[in-house]
Amino acid sequence: MTTIGYLGPKGTFTKLAVDTTFNNEDKVSYSTIPECIDAVANDEIDIAVVPIENAIEGTVQLTVDYLIHEVTLPVVAEVVVPIQQHLLVRPDFGGDLSQITEIHSHSHAIAQCHRYLHKNLTTAKFSYTTSTGRAAEIVAESTEPIAAIGNSLAAEEYGLQIFAENIHDYANNHTRFIVLAKNKALVNVKHPVQLEKTTLKITLPSDQPGALHQILSAFAWRKMNLSKIESRPTKTGLGNYFFIIDVNQAYDDALFPGVKGELEALGCEVNVLGTYPVYHMNL
Predict the structure, then answer these.
(1) Is 135 exposed, middle or buried (0-12, 13-18, 19+ CB in 10 A)?
(2) If you write DSSP's letter for every residue of 23-91 in order, what string do you get?
(3) What is the pLDDT of residue 17?
(4) N- or C-end of the chain: fewer Cβ atoms within 10 A?
(5) Its pathway (predicted)?
(6) Helix (H, G, I), strand (E, B) or coil at 16
(7) What local confidence, expressed as pLDDT, does residue 208 receive?
(8) 124 by DSSP, 3-state: which?
């Protein structure tokens, strides 16, 4: 049976993405994103699902940097999941928010709920965890007046009460998850494809004026739509960057080789990180 790894423990949004995307595959929880990615690289599991970007908080830099600098695995699919953040407490909580001393959750989840926390929990301290599921687990195991930010799955898994629903700042809150696998044929998604996408890593030549403009022009005159462009440090010195570019179409034998050849002629290094289908989940 195909084995899927995800950022755990139970009750995380990654687990929710896995449950709503795949069928009856065997599922394994990992406590960190690098551990999950390493498991695929080391052939311990077949597929890894990890978060890559949130609509409110932006890119999950740990995922990007680990794939670029530590482990090379192809992106074989993308899953977009709506995110609903709730304030979770134990069932015996008295209902007075001023009693809560700590809020536990992933740093992105806490940042997504800044307005609610600023208005209702001004004296509570933030405690950052590896995932929203882990935060719920901590609250369930504690006897202290603390709370977690997480989803309904976390509340159900750990026997918590949803004290306040949908406390995130913006209604259009979604997270993109990438699916990593050595064998793309093992990925069996139970939803229709929304679009095809290709992700490129482009490293610019050093100290060449107008290089970024030339890169974008190579896509523009071919009428290739870019949905995202982001710079990241190469970690070789100040001022040295590479770019991650998402193109909203599958890799082909005409346009992409033309772009690659044109950019390499400018002295750029071009790597394809994946060409893959995108799925949108409705919870």
Answers:
(1) buried
(2) -S-EEEEESSHHHHHHHHHTTS-SEEEEEEEETTTEE-HHHHHHHHHT----EEEEEEEE---EEEE-T
(3) 87
(4) N
(5) Amino-acid biosynthesis; L-phenylalanine biosynthesis; phenylpyruvate from prephenate: step 1/1
(6) helix
(7) 67
(8) coil
d(CA 198, CA 139): 40
- Burial of residue 197 (CB within 10 Å: 0-12, 13-18, 19+) is buried
Helix count and strand count (H, E) for the chain: 9, 15
Q: Where are the beta strands (DSSP E) in the chain?
A: 3-7, 26-30, 47-54, 58-59, 75-82, 86-89, 102-105, 125-128, 146-150, 161-164, 174-181, 195-203, 226-233, 241-247, 269-280
What angle do the packed helices 61-69 and 33-41 form, to 10 degrees? Answer: 30
Domains along the chain with CATH numbers = 3-83+173-186 (3.40.190.10), 86-164 (3.40.190.10), 195-280 (3.30.70.260)
Q: What percent of the chain has pLDDT over 70?
A: 98
Q: Which residue reads 């306040």 in tokens? A: 164
174-181 and 241-247 beta bridge pairing: unpaired
Instruction: Tell me the average pLDDT of the chain.
Output: 90
Q: Show the tokens assigned to 204.
A: 């610019």
